[in-house]
Structures are given as C-alpha cells and as structure tokens.
C-alpha cells in the first residue's frame, strides 16, 4: 500500500474542507470550541470533543492553507490518530484533495482524560488562546502501511477517520512490534521501503522527477490542547488539607512525519524553497 491522491472527491469531504470546523467523534460527548492563534499568526476555530462513552477525545481545526487537521486520542486502545485533508494543486495534476493518516501509540500523559475534558468550560469564548507550554517537535519515521479493512483491531475510530486516506495510512515499526506482541493480526501491516539506515531513496524535496519514488515529510502542529490537569490545595474546618482539580494546563506540540511515496506527485508540499 502506498500513498495516493483520492480519485473522486466526495461531497461530504469537500464540504468539510470548505466549512470552518466540524467534529469527528460521535456518541455521548461534550464539545468545546476555542479560538486559537496558529504559528503563522492566523486565528482559527478549534473544536474539541470528549466522548465519555467511547473514552476518547477529538480535536479539529483548519490551517491557513485550507488543510483540515483532525486528531483523535483513543484511551481505550491507547492509540492516537492524526489525519490531514490537504487541498490539491489542480494546476499540477492533483485531485481536489489528498488525505493522510498517521497512527501511533498514545501515552497517558499526552492529554487530559476524556472525563476531565467533558467538564471543561471557558469563561470568555471570544478570547484567543495561546498554549502555556510549547513542547518539542516529535520526529516519527512511519515505516509501515496499515490496511484499513483490518485496522479496527487497533481502534474503532480508524475506519471513520481514515477511510478517505485508504492507501495512505502509516505507522511506526516500534508500534507495529508493540501491537504484534499484544496479538494483533500481522497481515494488517505492510513494511515500506527503508526510511532510515542509509535510505536508498532521495528526499522528495530534492527529487526533480514527479514520478520518482522518494521519502516524503509532512509536519503539523497541535497549537492548543489540554495536556495536564492542575491541582489546588484546600483545608477543611478541621485544618486537614486535600487536593482538588482546579484547571488545566495547555500545550502546543509539533509532529514531523517521514514516509515513503511511490512518486513525488504525492508529496508536492515537500519542496525546496
């Protein structure tokens, strides 16, 4: 399986790209809409939704270039999913949009629990949010492709999140090993040509031939998300102290994905400037 542009753009997805922001997760949840300043200075509406029944959180926003970014944290399966719906360059032979999905393990300290997220409220919805902590860039070498039809074993969210990506669903070798150890069907994964250890392919940004295979990179940043709970201390009438939740800490974090594509045409954003 290799990355590909989607041949026929559905009305549903094109509507999502043109709309401001829509929410992905379904179920019994709570939605929070915040205004966030992106790294390019633009302000976007970000929608966060907590689904307590499925124990998950979704985050979605549109970048300045029109790309729709969606992130889902599945706490039941300890899986995180990133999806990018990228507007195509029609004048260069691309279709109207291209979908990418990146799947990895979720660490418990990355984002607050879904039950805490469901109770979040904001006093001033018009305020423009800036993260309190800017976390370091995470480099991810996505060395395996994931079969969409079998991906339900990893997370029930993948099919809805990544159905448009189909052959552009990627994960890391370390995550594959972890899931195989847990008994996941190995036929779900396909190893891609090397992305590390003296790669035999050039980076796409230095490849001139649009039909040449190369190593593509894609970067995104979650500019604002609730990464940690804050605790305050109080005392009762007897003087006994206790801790209670009194807020959240917000973070910003960037991700840099590297993966193989069979032709540079599938990676036109990754060019020398």
TrEMBL record:
Ranges for domain Out at first C-terminal come to: 203-271
Looking up Pfam families in the UniProt record yields: OAF_C (PF22873), OAF_N (PF14941)
All copies of the Out at first protein BRICHOS-like domain together span 30-179
PANTHER family, sorted: OUT AT FIRST, OUT AT FIRST PROTEIN HOMOLOG
Similarity annotation:
Belongs to the OAF family.
What protein is this chain from? Out at first protein homolog
Q: Which organism is it from?
A: Labrus bergylta (ballan wrasse)
């Amino acid at each position: 399986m290799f990355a590909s542009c989607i041949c026929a753009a559905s009305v549903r997805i094109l509507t999502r790209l043109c709309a401001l922001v829509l929410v992905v997760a379904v179920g019994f949840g709570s939605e929070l809409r915040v205004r966030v300043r992106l790294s390019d200075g633009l302000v976007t509406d970000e929608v966060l939704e907590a689904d307590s029944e499925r124990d998950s959180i979704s985050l979605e926003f549109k970048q300045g270039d029109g790309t729709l970014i969606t992130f889902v944290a599945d706490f039941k399966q300890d899986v995180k999913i990133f999806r990018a719906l990228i507007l195509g360059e029609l004048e260069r032979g691309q279709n109207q949009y291209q979908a990418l999905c990146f799947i990895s393990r979720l660490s418990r300290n990355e984002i607050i629990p879904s039950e805490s997220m469901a109770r979040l409220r904001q006093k001033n919805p018009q305020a423009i949010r800036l993260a309190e902590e800017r976390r370091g860039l995470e480099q991810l070498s996505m060395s395996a492709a994931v079969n969409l039809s079998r991906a339900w074993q990893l997370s029930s969210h993948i099919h809805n999140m990544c159905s448009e990506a189909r052959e552009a669903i990627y994960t890391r070798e370390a995550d594959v090993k972890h899931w195989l150890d847990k008994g996941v069907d190995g036929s779900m994964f396909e190893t891609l040509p090397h992305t590390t250890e003296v790669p035999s392919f050039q980076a796409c940004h230095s490849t001139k031939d649009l039909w040449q295979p190369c190593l593509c990179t894609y970067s995104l940043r979650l500019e604002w998300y609730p990464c940690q709970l804050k605790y305050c201390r109080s005392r009762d009438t007897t003087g006994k102290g206790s801790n209670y939740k009194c807020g959240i800490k917000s973070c910003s974090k960037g991700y840099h994905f590297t993966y193989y594509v069979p032709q540079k045409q599938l990676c036109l954003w990754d060019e020398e400037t």
